[in-house]
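User: Predict the structure for this protein chain, please.
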Amino acid sequence: MSDNKKRGFFSKLGGFIDAARRWTLNIIFLVIVGGIAMAIFSSVKEVSVPDRAVLVLAPEGVVVDQLSAVDAFTQLSAQGLPQETLLADLIEAVNLASDDSRIEVLLLKLDDLDHIGMSKTLELSEAIQGFRENGKTIVATANHYNQDQYLLASFADQIFVHNMGGVGIEGFAVIRNYFREAIDKLKIRFHVFKVGNFKSAVEPLLRNDMSDAAKEANRAWLNQLWSLYRDTVVERRGISIGKFDEYVNRIDHVMTEVGGDAAQAALDYGLVDGIVSRPVLREMLIERVGENDEGSFQQSYFRDYLALNRSLLIEVKESVGIIVASGNIVDGERPEGSIGGDSLARLIRKARLDQDIKAVVLRIDSGGGSAFASEVIRAELQKLQEAGKPLVVSMGSMAASGGYWIAAGADEVWATPATLTGSIGIFGAFPTVDNMLQDLGVSTDGVGTTAVAGKLRPDLPLDPILASAIQSGVEYGYRRFINIVANGRNKLVEQVEPIAEGRVWSGVDAQQLGLVDKLGGLQQAVNSAASLVGLDPADTRLLSLPLSPEEELMRMLLGSGFVKTALSASSPLVSVLNSVLPAWRDVLALKDSRGVYAYCLMCVAP
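Assistant: Here is the predicted structure, written as structure tokens:
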């Protein structure tokens, strides 16, 4: 067989294998979706809200501003439950229940909550406070409260913990590994290009410890956020700062006093109101609202409650459009849960051309990423404003580095007190391993047509010409960033430079420095945007790019409260999924490429 015929044969064979693979994946997808649907609909009962009921607010996994549009099956944990919960869903459910005479109690069931963060907790607490002001009761329960869960629980009227549980509070810290000595032993050289004394993301490559500048910057925002956490708990629980500090800093002494009983320690120090078992809590709530057919208290799970209420909603015409920008900022098209420069710009352009969208609220929850993608997004936002549509930015847990790049030019910038923002700086790093290779007996040599041809390689020393050129590009990017902030915030460059240099600020400090206009959550930002165009704050529309039919179907199924029953850990379907999904992910990984992007690595929101 000739070489051409061989190539043609193998090309056809490869095409056949690829087509077979795609058909197999589609069949697997349909079988699994069909199985999920059958499991759900076979367990469906008529859902209604009892005349007296408890709204069960049970966030699962990580509370986010936008669900990740990854392979739908990765939305399922080992127990078959969604691993992400929308903050907007939690707030909407509480707000609806506030005015619903059938809902008497809000139960914060926090066992399955992995992380919500201070910023999102403060936003949700505003809805909880509105529920309380309507004369209703909030109860929190968990087997054991971690620090994140407990801040949310502190907004309840009563906090109960299991007799085998407790409350774990330790404070906030930034702890990192440093690799300078290991890198030296491996004879790897990292060439770092940066501007800004506080842009410390590359320090682990260059040092064996945290620099004094990084300690100063980190200590400032950590202390401020910790003070906010402590003051919130102390005020909500009516205990002294001294008692709170003793519980945290002398936990060994505290535990010794109670013989190691963590639940009793939490009760003694006023962090909880009672130590109750699950049956006792159930009986307490039955006494309050009555018993249902399953021997539990009359209740409505928040996802079911939302589904019932949303079926009654009528979409308004003239609206404030809400766009969510959540995740790392990267180039090109990206699904929800990350920010693609091209895809987000396309969504902003869609809002600009939609005559019914009168203003836009951009909700940012991002530590940044690609400077190029950030600029693509910022330019499209500028076009939106030039079209006469106000732009209001609402910062979530963080809007730092590239996240602040796209925020700076807004007509108004809102942040919560706990938002991490700023980090106005640029950096890059390029490793070379020529010394390591030489020790192994590997040499690199050759010729080129110019002074720099073929020189940007990790197995060659970094050429001084290229090093100088890269540094110049980084410095240009920093100057551009500074100018964007200065123009957007109506400041002189000289006023921005001292508050830049890669330093991270809390929302409170950012407002004082003029990087943020006002403190408040998404709802306050929406209210402000609506007032700018004379609309009712209720006239909003969440804008998003269309999902694929598969994504739409899976999101609908995963958003149903019935999934909790149909996809329980004991379900045979879950056993099948747990055996099939690893292989599914491996197949998808064959055609999925991911990059690693530099951004505000220190911005891990408490």
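The chain has three domains: 3-45+549-589, 53-173+217-310, 319-543.
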